[in-house]
Write a structure and sequence with these properties.
Elements lengths: L6 E4 L5 H12 L3 E5 L4 H15 L3 E4 L6 H15 L4 E4 L14 H29 L2 E6 L12 H21 L4 E8 L5 H5 L1 H8 L3 H9 L11 H12 L10 E4 L7
Helix pairs in contact: 1-2, 1-9, 3-4, 4-5, 7-8
The chain binds nicotinamide-adenine-dinucleotide.
The site of nicotinamide-adenine-dinucleotide has 29 residues, from α1, α4 and α6.
Length: 261
């Protein structure tokens, strides 16, 4: 259990990729802070499962990370419970699909606040503790959309490209403090986030569900398979290892060849 004694905070970890990260890190003995929305009973079941897997503590924070004051409250609670956060995974994210000229302004603001600004706030609040330990890991769930664009996803593509830039800057600023900062950039992973964008994409492109799945989602993914959340989590676990200490400022693609094209 190479993460015993470490604390990992994973934003947006009540479902999908975030929950897979939490499970992978718990198996290696880390204390876990999960965050996100959802059914309270289901979240409590997951929280208990994490403690059973790790033999350590798991706590839940339901704060809305599109709001800086709530991010501060979450980070304060984590510091009170565990002293600080050794591993920060910025993963909470939402999507909205619409042409630029019809893109709802409040959706733009939400996506930039949650998918980009939240990572700045969690990072600035986590770094002093990491520096005091001379060890830390900052991992962003970016996306193939941090490297390339698709139509109708202006806010998401903008936020993810920004996240990639923030990560490179963090890597340089923290390079001599034993702290690495990296992006993991999945292609399409079958999670609620992907499932939910199918109706809007059907509307935006005038397509059937099957056409969206095969001609849009998997069209750009040469392997013609969805990535799994567990494959993404395995990369995060590797980035936490001492063997990965020289990997910093990198953008690790897990996209079935999408961005190789
Ligand atoms: P998901 O919808 O399953 O999970 C999103 C998580 O964020 C949930 O826990 C949700 O409760 C939480 N969340 C939503 N709004 C929040 C808020 N305001 N405050 C706090 N938490 C909030 O989606 P997912 O596919 O697992 O996505 C996770 C990350 O992976 C996102 O950043 C997404 O952009 C990225 N990603 C996903 C894919 C994919 O194909 N699924 C591909 C590349 C990148």
């Amino acid at each position: 259990m190479f993460l015993s004694g470490k604390t990992a905070l994973i934003t947006g970890s009540t479902s999908g990729i975030g929950l897979a990260y939490a499970k992978a890190l718990a198996v290696e003995g880390a204390n876990i802070v999960i965050n996100g929305f959802g059914d309270p009973d289901a979240i409590e079941t997951e929280r208990k499962g994490l403690e059973a897997a790790s033999g350590a503590k798991a706590t839940y924070s339901g704060h809305d990370l599109s709001k800086p004051d709530q991010i501060e409250a979450m980070m304060k609670e984590a510091a009170e419970a565990f002293g600080g956060v050794d591993i920060l995974i910025n993963n909470a994210g939402v999507q909205h699909v619409a042409p630029v000229e019809e893109f709802p302004v409040e959706k733009w603001d939400l996506i930039i606040a949650l998918n980009l600004n939240a990572a700045f706030h969690t990072s600035r609040l986590a770094i002093p503790y990491m520096k005091s330990k001379n060890w830390g890991r900052i991992i962003q769930t970016a996306s193939a959309h941090s490297l390339t664009a698709s139509p109708f996803k202006s806010a998401y593509v903008t936020a993810k490209h920004g996240l990639a830039g923030l990560t490179k800057t963090l890597a340089l600023e923290l390079a001599t403090h034993g702290i690495t900062a990296n992006c993991i950039s999945p292609g399409y992973v079958w999670t609620p986030l992907v499932e939910k964008q199918i109706p809007d994409t059907m509307k935006a492109r005038n397509m059937t569900k099957e056409q969206v799945m095969n001609d849009v989602l998997l069209a750009g993914q040469p392997t013609k398979q969805f990535v799994t959340a567990e494959q993404v989590a395995a990369m995060a676990l590797y980035l936490c290892r001492d063997e990965a200490a020289q990997i910093t400022g990198a953008n690790m693609s897990i996209d079935g060849g999408w961005t190789a094209q």
